[in-house]
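To fix ideas, we close by showing one paired sequence and structure record:
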Amino acid sequence: MTIAIIGTGFVGVTTAAVYAEHGHTVYGVDIDERKVESLKTGVVPFFEPGLEDLLKKGVEAGNLHFTTSYTVAVPTADIIMVAVGTPSQVDGAINDAYVIAACESVAPLLKTGAIVIIKSTVPPNLIPKFEQIIRAKTQTEFYLATMPEFLKEGTAVEDTLHPDRVVIGTTNPGVADKLKELNQVFNVPMLVVSPQSAQMIKYASNSYLAQRITFINQIANVCEKVGADIQEVIKGIGFDHRIGDHYWYPGLGYGGSCFPKDVRELAHMADSLEINDNLFSWMRTANAHRVDEVLREFSSQVDGWDGKTVAILGLAFKPQTDDTRDAPAQFIIPQLIRAGATVRGYDPKARFMMTADLSTSADRYTPTSSIAEAVKNADVIMSVIEWPEIINFDFGPHKAQDKQQWFIDIRNQFDPARVRGWGYKYSGIGRNNV
């Protein structure tokens, strides 16, 4: 099949590369000329393991093309996937301007029988709106469907090559058959539902996973007060097959490009539908306050941040990505600087960007190129993200001999006894930190 994918962000590029890998002719479309020129040479403008190799393979094989021209990509396409960004507005409502622009651009160029797929995450009640926008600009018969993505940054290629399931949103049997044919190579369950249900599956999936993080953080708070250890609690509840031992991440809350946005939008959706006291609004608030709460607790343990040098290890929102959107470090570092600390930051891929309100304190933050450089003589070492480079690092030889140093284990990745054996004072999340 010939596929045009509108938007060459994280989802668009990964999806394009994988379908090209399976022999389809794929066009990636973006209005950003510099990005398109980069992608034509096989260079991805962000870090995602395995993606650049797959991209180069598709480009060199002649299956994968990138262009700024809708007229090049759309007229021959059997399937057009809209995979543009849908950022949240301040109140949590979705900004669908990019989806609207994409729909308006593809509409006059559609060939008869083309399937337009909304792959961007959008509230279910907006699906009819996008169909009306396209119909207003074309006389050509087309079909609108949805097919949400379930990619995780850091494992996007693997997730796309080997998905858990494919969700197809359409009420047209012919469209369902065509999209089943497109995805049969993945050999996974394929669920055909209404377009609205398909989008709701995406929101429900991400919000449930975010809820697990919020829940375990609340349990960790209680553990700290009663002398329990959250890691032992997680192990104990994991034996219950209704609960499982997976996806429990006590720490500073959820971040990244999807969870915060999707929870905000679901909360706004529930509010607009007058679903009072909805869980999603509470989750949004709890997650927003999480960093403040944890930093206050740690501040009391280390006798305040003023005058201290703090090493922040991990600047991305999770391992194996350079994405810093809603990353813990983006909230931690400004607070530490305002509290009088000097901060050194390290991450294998990501970088902390100084905000305008911290411009006068730029000398209080230093990016480093190694863990050893970041932790040298630091009063506090804070392991924020579980990059392998960080959790496998031997901190023992870097312990300052002439001062007390704290080791704060935000993701509970270290053995407290080992850290104490190195000579540090250990503190984790929801653990017995005495």
